[in-house]
Amino acid sequence: MQNIQHPDYQEELERLEFTKKYMEIVIKASESTEENFRENLKSSLEGIDLKDSSLSYMSMLTNSNLLRRTEEEVKRLKKFENKPYFAKINFLREETNQEEILYIGKVSLFDKETQMPIIVDWRSPVANLYYDGRLGEVSYEAEGEKYEGFLSQKRQFIIENGELTDIRDIDLTTNDELLQMSLANSSSNRLTEIVSTIQEEQNNVIRADLNKPIIVQGAAGSGKTTIALHRLSYFIYTYAEHFTPNQLMILAPNRLFIDYISEVLPELGVENIHQTTFVDYVLKCIGKKIKLKHPDEKLLKFMNREIQEPELTRWISAFKGSLQFRDIINQYLQDILKTLLPKEDFYVSKFRLYSAKKLRKLITYEYEYLPYYQRIEKIKRVLQNHVRTEKKTMIEKITNFYDEKLERALYSKADPENRRKYVSMALDKKDYALKEINKEVRTAVNTYMKQIPKHDLFHYYKELVTNKELFSKYAPDLTEQQIEFFCNYQFLLYTEKSFEIEDLSALLYLQGKLFGIDKMLRVKNVVIDEAQDYSYFQLFALKSVLETDMFTIVGDLAQGIHSYRGINDWSIVYKEIFPRASYKTLQKSYRTTIEIMNAANEILKLLQLNLPTVEPVVRHSQKPTFIETTTEKATIEKICSEIERMYSEGIKTVAVIGKTNNECKKLAKLFGKYSTLPIQFLQENEEINKDEVVIVSSHLSKGLEFDAVIVCTLDETFEANEIDIKLLYVSMTRPLHRLMLFGKDKSCFLLDQIEDASLFGELVS
Ligand SMILES: Nc1ncnc2c1ncn2[C@@H]1O[C@H](COP(=O)(O)OP(=O)(O)OP(=O)(O)O)[C@@H](O)[C@H]1O
């Protein structure tokens, strides 16, 4: 329905028509050859009555060269031809005392002759006024300069398929209706861009100082993933001249997640950047295939209580990700360096070309900026060059030495026979010495370098973590029991020839310090999502090998299901790892409704985490419903009838979440037996199929969202421990609109333990 009631509707309609036509002309011109240009221009203008104000544009159009654009720009113009902009601001610039009317879109379009913008990119400095500025006195910054003025209007447009369907003016009092509308929409199983409805607190994260790292603690559904990607887009726009996209990297928790965010990136103009997981990245850095235990194996074992020494195992995981372990490795590295320092002077034949002391100084201090083995390589090159330059001198010295001898012999008064013998011997010796020196020149460096031990990464790591004597030397703060358990644990892993994800921080760090990483992998800017599951050492190792602290780190401690190995306190991250970082929190949750968020918050209270309370954006739904299950058949039939009902009410995507993968396996089997609904039993490396009911385990659902979620407990219920509470919280915060809990009784979801059970509705089946 079109909002033609708006007094400026006609004017805005004309502006839209003009912009669309203008874009079309620019696109055509950019694509056509010089001869075709005028012809194209003529035909595209036929029948179009462009307004007088656009005459200046017309004069520009006669200069085809001005319209030539890069392929990339044309591609983007084409993409947004049907929705050139989404907002408009009227800004009276104090400096000029002139009112500027700026249309804001996902692409920019300028009149190069008059320098007047036709569309302003949402990432441009002045567009900040739309996101940040209230009406009235405002200012924005561009390239260090502050610009002030008066913002008299903020207007939003809804343009669908090139048609203007709605106009909304925002003032101080109106709620952000566009945000409400956008949140009420269905999820498509994919993340979308939110440029037209970015909120102030989110804008502050997106546009926070790009030269500094940023750490964001954001509630479930607060837009962390979304805004981290928007910040990347903003970064690319702002620093287009300094960075190429392949210097940027997103670290996602798994492949499924990469697929989940894949569609939004091109929308935001973010293309050709590295998108990978921490595990894959480390494997690339160390350049060797290793047998790695599944990253979730331990979590699943904890969940299934399959771990014999849970406390010590928990401790090992936390320890391997701690800065304490990093410090131990740093001491170990100092000792490794000592083993690499040459003890003997470097000789070629009898010539001492370099003292060991000088070489040790080079390795220890001069080349300190390089990884150890690169220092050794450099030393090798230094010696080779030195030998090359000294070769002539050495040969001269030998030649002179024997020539002098010969000369003396020739003029000596000795017996001729003895003299002849002496001369001939001296000549042989000279010959031999010259041959020797030529040979040594070729081999001396290699022979010398052999005194320096050469081991690979795994040797060094194994040596440290399985050798109790060595390990205890660096770990005076650990108890004997801890050292014993740790080294035995690592030795067992070694005999299985495998590693855990927790070992990767140390391996990456050692790789960086000992050998360095490939230049192609040394990205300059990193976005880490779900960062609560990273360990302190993991973050430190990344920063160390990349030699940059330009990180955008977003996460939610309340969803830290790997907290046994992950971060429990952001202050350690910003105090000890990223001291330049700014720290921000996002407390509003946009994904889900007040009723669902309040219920999820009630579950989270059981943990007494010291986190800011999550405020849902005002959007209502039914309360989450608890449904008591009876037989397996009846449960599946009831779930299916609820899903059918929701589909008929316009719900598009539904997930059935089970606590563990085993539970999901069972659910999938039962669905196959008792239902005809198409299902997808989601695995980590799969793409989500939009048209099927997704069955997914709670830990894998982290980061995803669906219109409706049914959490179902058959054999495995949520218990009152940290991991289970967090898994339940994660599962409950996935839906946009509806949440149902199916279980034998309320205790399956800890509803018997919460303070306010009235937050949940009930349906007796
Ligand atoms: N300003 C906004 N306008 C419209 N939609 C928004 C806005 N902010 C967030 N959303 C929507 O809220 C949902 C949650 O966003 P996102 O997945 O980025 O949050 P998150 O903090 O990463 O969540 P979680 O930690 O629970 O995975 C998405 O559907 C996103 O499009």
Structure explained in plain terms:
- It contains 28 helices and 26 strands.
- With 765 residues, the chain is α/β, with parallel strands linked by helices.
- Among the domains are: 8-194, no CATH class; 343-451; 620-749, P-loop containing nucleotide triphosphate hydrolases (Rossmann fold), CATH 3.40.50.300.
- Helix 19 packs across helix 22.
- The chain is globular, with a radius of gyration of 35 Å.
- The structure holds adenosine-5'-triphosphate (ATP).
- The site of adenosine-5'-triphosphate has 24 residues, from helix 7 and helix 9.
- This is DNA 3'-5' helicase.
- Residues 197-593 form the UvrD-like helicase ATP-binding domain.
- It catalyses: Couples ATP hydrolysis with the unwinding of duplex DNA by translocating in the 3'-5' direction; ATP + H2O = ADP + phosphate + H(+).
